[in-house]
Specification:
The chain is α+β, with helices and mostly antiparallel strands. It is built from 19 helices and six strands. Helix 4 packs antiparallel against helix 15, helix 11 packs across helix 14 and helix 13 runs antiparallel to helix 14. About 3% of the residues have low confidence.
Length: 549
């Protein structure tokens, strides 16, 4: 998958992506203006640094709390409908906050509560929007489109906070809440007008509980996803200090007001936009892990300068660099997750990435707020710089893998299982046993190859995987696993990708059995029902000759 000739703005040539992306800028404007209004109102009505920092936690905590649920729902149902419902909830709760504020019911905990509620609406729509990007642009433009997704947020962040500061200073925080309510509406209208063109699945959707478990198990057995999640969580804890303590930096360190607070966030946003537009080009320079280490060094130095500086220009320059480095780290890890995850689980993978990113920022904001309360804002910034530097150790121990070149789209298997029992989608458990005839001198190589096969089986839905060697005939090996139901088994078969088949091919070269793979499918605790019949394959999926289970 090459993207060397894809410009930063190339995905905007596609109408659906362009319309949704443009409307999302307004929504981000509204959410950031809300954040400015809440943060400054909190600083006005309380002197507690920890309460001020908690406004950043309240903005990000919803992404941590609802993202897993949102990702599972997005993979189960129509992403367009989910987005519409989520945005409608955000609009309604925002209007409610505005009404209560004008009635004079503003209190610290009321502000935090409604900030969380509005954030839940926005957070619930985010996985559906990100997971639908591949439906709107070609595969070679996906990294650039993901980069533009970050640019949309940071384009708003470059001006939104400054605009929010002006609104708060000129009219009061209540009017910032009004603007927030209005700016969600264009995105709602755009999604309402969008008509998805997606082939329906041949299988019914998973149940909610099963969908959540399937997503978590896929991530558990996918090294690229696990390492990207760990890295994003740890980095975001460290970089949260800049935005969380920005009101206190403006007020206590630099001696400014709401306008200076907006300026600091605006400068950070400009840095993030500049970096976001360069994501595709930076990815082409070297592999992701090396870039992440360099960015951690740059970001750490910039946060240290913010902690030491008492001059507005120097602080702005440091925040510009720190914000650019931060958005590059998050964007590169986001791209790594998208390029290593098949479509059937992409929304759940992105929701986990969103949870780790937002969770890191939420926890980091709380931690650095406590440090600022107990010590000082400057010391909190310097400690966060040191913590970011330490994340390089994670890169040495658990580096983010290079992007795979293989196709990760689902494929259609040509061999249908022969069924003589009466089965329903809920019949089960289904036990599978696959025999292999392996030369003794190749036993060690075969065993190592089967460890890769184990990951394929488990992340696609298998349970209790095992590999056994016959005591009487050491050449005979048996792979065994089970699926909870017949429906789960069929879903597991539908999840194979080219990468998975390549792993199967690596195992097959050791097998001396000729012809089809020796597979036994068994029903435990058999209960008869309607006979299962294979449906015709989806014509939009590739059909490959595959003789495995």
């Amino acid at each position: 998958m090459s993207n060397k000739n894809v410009g930063a703005f190339t995905p905007l040539k596609h109408k659906n992506f362009r319309n949704i992306w443009s409307a999302s800028v307004f929504a981000y404007f509204g959410h950031l203006i809300l954040g400015v209004g809440v943060a400054w109102e909190m600083a006005r009505i309380t002197d507690s640094p920890s309460m001020v920092a908690l406004t950043q936690t309240a903005l990000m905590a919803p992404y941590m709390l609802v993202a897993i649920v949102a990702g599972a729902v997005a993979d189960m149902f129509d992403r367009r409908l989910i987005t519409l419902c989520s945005l409608a909830f955000a609009i309604i709760t925002s209007i409610t906050l505005t009404s209560l504020a004008f009635l004079g019911y503003t209190t610290p905990w009321m502000l935090l509560l409604f900030t969380v509620m509005i954030g839940c609406g926005v957070a619930f729509y985010a996985p559906s929007w990100q997971a639908s990007i591949p439906e709107q642009v070609p595969p070679d433009q996906l990294p650039a489109a993901i980069g533009l997704g970050s640019v949309a947020y940071n384009a708003a962040r470059s001006v939104g906070p400054a605009l929010g500061g002006i609104i708060v200073m000129a009219f009061g925080a209540n009017y910032a809440f009004i603007v927030n309510s209005i700016f969600y509406i264009p995105l709602f209208i755009t999604f309402y007008l969008w008509r998805r063109n997606v082939a329906p699945s041949r299988l019914p959707p998973e149940g909610f509980r099963r969908a959540v478990i399937s997503g978590l198990r896929y991530a558990q057995h996918s090294s690229p996803i696990k390492r990207a999640l760990l890295r994003s969580f740890s980095v975001c804890i460290c970089i949260a200090s800049a935005n969380a303590l920005a009101p206190l930096i403006a007020r206590d360190v630099l001696g400014g007001g709401a306008d200076m607070y907006g300026l600091l966030l605006g400068v950070s946003g400009v840095g993030a936009v500049t970096a976001g537009l360069a994501v595709s080009h930076i990815r082409a320079l070297t592999h992701t892990e090396r870039t992440l280490k360099i960015l951690a060094l740059i970001g750490s130095g910039s946060l240290l300068v913010v902690g030491l500086s008492q001059f507005l220009v120097l602080t702005c320059l440091a925040l510009f660099v720190a914000s650019g480095a931060s958005i590059l780290v998050v964007s590169l890890l986001n791209i790594s997750v998208q390029l290593s995850t098949p479509r059937w689980v992409i929304a759940r993978a992105l929701s986990m990435f969103q949870t780790c990113t937002a969770g890191g920022i939420a926890i980091g904001s709380w931690v650095w707020g406590l440090v600022a309360s107990d010590y000082s804002v400057q010391q909190a910034m310097m400690l966060s710089a040191l913590a970011l530097l330490l994340t390089i150790l994670i890169g040495w121990l658990l580096p983010v893998p290079k992007d795979a070149d293989e196709d990760i789209e689902q494929i259609e298997l040509s061999n249908e299982p022969n069924v003589a029992l009466d089965l329903t989608m809920r019949s089960g458990p289904i036990v599978l046993e696959i025999d292999y005839d392996i030369a003794p001198e190749q036993a060690r190589q075969f065993y190592n190859a089967m460890l890769h096969m184990q990951k394929v089986r488990l992340r696609n839905g298998a349970y209790d995987w095992s590999l056994a060697r016959d005591i009487e005939n050491p050449d005979l090996w048996t792979e065994r696993f089970h699926c909870p139901t017949w429906g789960d088994y069929l879903r597991m078969r539908s999840r194979y990708t080219q990468i998975d088949l390549a792993t199967h091919g690596e195992v097959k070269i050791f097998n001396r059995f000729t012809g089809p793979t020796h597979v036994r499918r068994k029903l435990e605790r058999p209960i008869g029902s309607v006979r299962w019949q294979a449906e015709s394959p989806d014509t939009k999926q590739e059909t490959l000759d595959y003789t495995g289970p």
